[in-house]
Write a structure and sequence with these properties.
The complex is a heterotrimer.
Chain A: H1 2-10, H2 17-47, H3 52-73, H4 82-112, H5 116-119, E1 123-128, H6 134-146, E2 150-155, E3 160-165, H7 168-172, H8 177-186
Antiparallel strand pairs in A: 1-3, 2-3
Helix pairs in contact in A: 1-2, 2-3, 4-8, 6-8
Chain B: H1 2-25, H2 29-54, H3 57-81
Helix pairs in contact in B: 1-2, 2-3
Chain C: H1 2-25, H2 29-55, H3 61-94
The chains are: A mainly alpha, B mainly alpha, C mainly alpha.
Chain lengths: ~190, ~90, ~110
C-alpha cells in the first residue's frame, strides 16, 4: 500500500515542494515500520512475558531504536523489490543447508581418512564473479565460507574473489550453481 | 532422557579437551584462536544441555545467546589486534 | 519426538568430534579453519535443533518460545561464524603466512 504511494509520488519529485517533503517522509516511514516490526517480534520472543508492563516497555524501546536506526537495516533504494527478495531468500536457505550437509560429509571423510596428508592439496585460487550488488556479493562470500572445503580470503567490490580450497574436488565446482542461485535471488 | 543429556555433556567436555590441546600448544597465535573459537561454540551447546539437565532451559538460553555474542566479538577483536604481524611468528622451533 | 531429538544430538556430537579431530590433524592453520569454522557450526545446528525439539515436545507456549530462542542462537551463529572465520584468515594473510602446499616438504609449516 505505502510502497505504491511512494513510487507514485516519486515521479513528481522536484516539481512541487510540499509533495517532495511528503515523499521524503513517506520514504522514512516504511523502513521505520519494518524495523519496528522486526524489533518487536524479537522482543516478544526474547522476553516471553505478556502482561501490560513488559509490552509497553517493549513498544517504547522499539520506537526509540527504530527511529534512530531505521535507515541502517533497510536501505531506501532497494525498497521496491523487497518482498520478492525475502521470498527468494527463504527458498535459498534449504538448498544452502543441503549443500552444507553434503560438503560437511566430504570434510568428515577427509578428517577420518588415515592418509589425509596425501589427499588434501591446499591452494589459493581466484576467479571473477559477475555479481554486481554489494548485498549479493556478501551473500555469495558467506555461502562460499559456509560450504566446507572453501573459505573466502578476499572479495573486492568489483567481484573478484580469492578463495582458499582444501582439495581439487571442492575447488572445481566453485563459480557454478551457487552463483546462479544468488544472482536469481537478488534479481540480477 | 536426563541421563542421555548428562552423558552427552560429559562427551562434549572430553571433545573440548581435544580443542584445548590446539589452544595450548598451537604453533602460532592464530591456531590458538581457532582452538578458543571451537571451545566457545561447544560451550554454547553445553550451556543448553546444562539447562535441560537442571530443567531451567529458559534461563540458560539467554546465557548461551550472550556467550555466542561474546565468542564472536572476542574472535573479531583478537584477529584485528594480531593482524599487523604483532606476535605472529612460528613458535614451534 | 524424543527419539528424533536424540538422533539429532548424536549426529551433532559426531560432527563436533570430526571438527576437533580435524583441528588436531590438519597441517597448517589455513586448512585447520575448514573443520573449525564449519564442522562446528554444523554440529551446533544439529545439537541445538535436537534440543529445541526436546524442549518443545509438550507443545505449551513457554516451551515453544524457549525453542524459538534456541533457533535464534542457530541463526545468529550461522550469520557470525563465516565472519569470524574470515577475520582469522584475513589476519593470517595480512601477516604474510603462506598456505601449506607441498606434501613432499615435510618440515615446512
Amino acid at each position: 500500500m505505502s510502497v505504491d504511494n511512494l513510487s507514485s509520488t516519486d515521479t513528481s519529485f522536484g516539481k512541487a515542494k510540499p509533495s517532495a517533503v511528503q515523499s521524503r517522509r513517506a520514504k522514512k516511514i516504511v523502513p521505520f515500520c519494518l524495523t519496528f516490526i522486526i524489533c518487536f517480534a524479537t522482543w516478544f520472543v526474547l522476553s516471553g512475558r505478556f502482561d501490560f508492563f513488559h509490552i509497553a516497555l517493549g513498544i517504547i524501546a522499539c520506537t526509540i531504536v527504530a527511529s534512530l536506526s531505521g535507515s541502517i537495516l533497510i536501505s531506501r533504494r532497494g525498497l521496491e523489490n523487497l518482498p520478492g527478495q525475502w521470498l527468494g531468500f527463504i527458498l535459498y536457505i534449504p538448498w544452502l543447508l543441503y549443500q552444507v550437509l553434503l560438503a560437511n560429509i566430504h570434510v568428515m571423510y577427509l578428517v577420518f581418512h588415515p592418509r589425509m596428508i596425501e589427499l588434501i592439496d591446499p591452494r589459493i585460487i581466484s576467479f571473477k564473479s559477475k555479481l554486481k550488488k554489494p548485498m549479493s556479493l556478501f551473500i555469495f562470500a558467506n555461502s562460499i565460507t559456509l560450504t566446507p572445503g572453501t573459505i573466502t580470503v578476499f572479495v573486492s567490490i568489483t567481484g573478484e574473489y580469492t578463495v582458499h580450497v582444501i582439495d581439487e574436488k571442492s575447488g572445481n565446482s566453485l563459480p557454478g550453481e551457487m552463483e546462479e542461485r544468488v544472482a536469481r535471488l537478488m534479481g540480477e | 532422557m536426563e541421563t542421555f543429556f548428562l552423558y552427552a555433556a560429559i562427551y562434549l567436555c572430553l571433545i573440548m579437551l581435544l580443542s584445548l590441546y590446539r589452544a595450548v600448544f598451537g604453533p602460532t597465535v592464530l591456531d590458538r584462536m581457532i582452538g578458543v573459537n571451537a571451545i566457545g561454540s561447544k560451550t554454547t551447546a553445553l550451556l543448553i544441555m546444562i539447562g535441560i539437565i537442571y530443567q531451567r532451559v529458559e534461563m540458560f538460553v539467554d546465557i548461551a545467546l550472550a556467550y555466542a555474542c561474546l565468542n564472536f566479538i572476542a574472535v573479531l577483536a583478537a584477529s584485528r589486534f594480531f593482524q599487523k604481524r604483532k606476535g605472529l611468528y612460528d613458535e614451534s622451533h | 519426538m524424543t527419539l528424533v531429538a536424540a538422533i539429532f544430538i548424536v549426529l551433532g556430537l559426531f560432527f563436533f568430534t570430526g571438527g576437533s579431530i580435524g583441528i588436531l590433524r590438519f597441517p597448517d592453520f589455513f586448512s585447520r579453519l575448514h573443520p573449525a569454522g564449519k564442522l562446528d557450526s554444523m554440529g551446533l545446528l544439529m545439537t541445538l535443533a535436537g534440543m529445541a525439539l526436546y524442549t518443545a515436545r509438550d507443545l505449551s507456549l513457554p516451551a515453544i518460545l524457549t525453542a524459538l530462542k534456541i533457533l535464534l542462537i542457530v541463526v545468529f551463529v550461522f550469520i557470525t561464524s563465516p565472519t569470524a572465520t574470515h577475520a582469522i584468515l584475513d589476519a593470517g594473510v595480512r601477516a604474510g603466512l603462506g598456505p601449506w602446499t607441498a606434501p613432499k616438504k615435510k618440515g615446512t609449516r
